[in-house]
Amino acid sequence: MPRKTQRVQAIVLDRTRLGEQDLICRLLAQDGTRLDVVAKGGRKPGSKVAARVDLFCESDLLVTQGRGSLAVIAESAIVHPHARLRGDYERTCAAGALAQVARHTSYEDAQDAYLYPILSRALTACEQATAVDASALDARLSLLVAAYVFKVLAHEGWLPVLDACVGCGEPNPSRFSAAAGGALCESCAAELPGAEPAPRVQLDWISYLLGATFDRLLEVDVDARTAMWLARMAHLWATTHLDVRLKAFEFFLGV
Ligand SMILES: [Zn+2]
After folding, report:
1. What is the pLDDT of residue 193?
2. pLDDT-derived band of residue 255, with 50, 70 and 90 as boundaries?
């Protein structure tokens, strides 16, 4: 049987060890599908392939379906190393949260042209984020991660209702509930455990994240408390609708 070879541009979402020197890399391909490939020698210091399958790296790969179930990388070239995401603890944690959500919102056999460019842009934004101090950087990264999560989840069908109460349509909601699907008024919230207090200005922030470009998100003024709250709500939104635990995202939030 001839071996099937294909060329894919992909982002490395995560990696697991395989034997002494190899890695299994979980990738998001440019067509939005997810695939796992083996990087032979991927753990060998100084090996050619090692740098091309670094976490968050965007690489052009030639993969060959081997005798086993997983394809093997035959050739590789770096498209975008996203090196700054690996040299800085806060940025690494933010990128880890992004990659984890990307992993749980992409599927082996479902193409979706939206997923790759937005992850690539969000990773680049996490590299570009500048701030006067560590707490401002945390705030900026929280805003970027929250925006990515709400955008991707909305794209996949989980768009929060924000302008009126999800339960009764009351126009001045003051709570937010991932389980309910968005904003709630006080009386509907009283019947649902776990609805978070959410003043209008904070609900407006979620709407803003859904619509704003990453260029805007890198510039907009945001206070640290609001940014952290948005990241926390994005985490709640993702875990509730994807029905998974997101440990890297938890780690980023410091919970
Ligand atoms: Zn209501």
Report:
1. 86
2. low
84-253: CATH, from 3.40.630.30, 1.20.1530.20, 3.30.2010.30, 1.20.1440.120 = 1.20.1440.120
Which regions of the chain carry the CATH code 2.40.50.140? 5-81
23 alpha carbon – ligand 1 mean position (Å): 51
The Å distance, Cα 173 to ligand 1 centre, comes to 7
The lowest-confidence range among 1-10, 160-169, 179-188 is 1-10
3-state SS assignment for residue 15 = strand
Q: Which long-range contacts (CB under 8 A, 24 or more apart) does 39-45 make?
A: 39/15, 39/72, 39/73, 40/72, 40/73, 42/15, 42/73, 43/17
Q: Is the pLDDT of residue 96 over 80?
A: yes
Place of tokens 């067509």: 31
Q: Is the pLDDT assigned to residue 2 strictly greater than 90?
A: no
- CA–centroid distance, residue 8 to ligand 1 (Å): 48
CA of 184 to the centre of ligand 1 (A): 5
Architecture of domain 5-81: Beta Barrel (2.40)
How many angstroms is it from 25 CA to the middle of ligand 1?
46
Q: What is the pTM of this model?
A: 0.95
182: alpha, beta or left? (left if phi > 0; alpha if psi -120 to 50): left
Ligand 1 geometric centre to CA of 224 (Å): 29
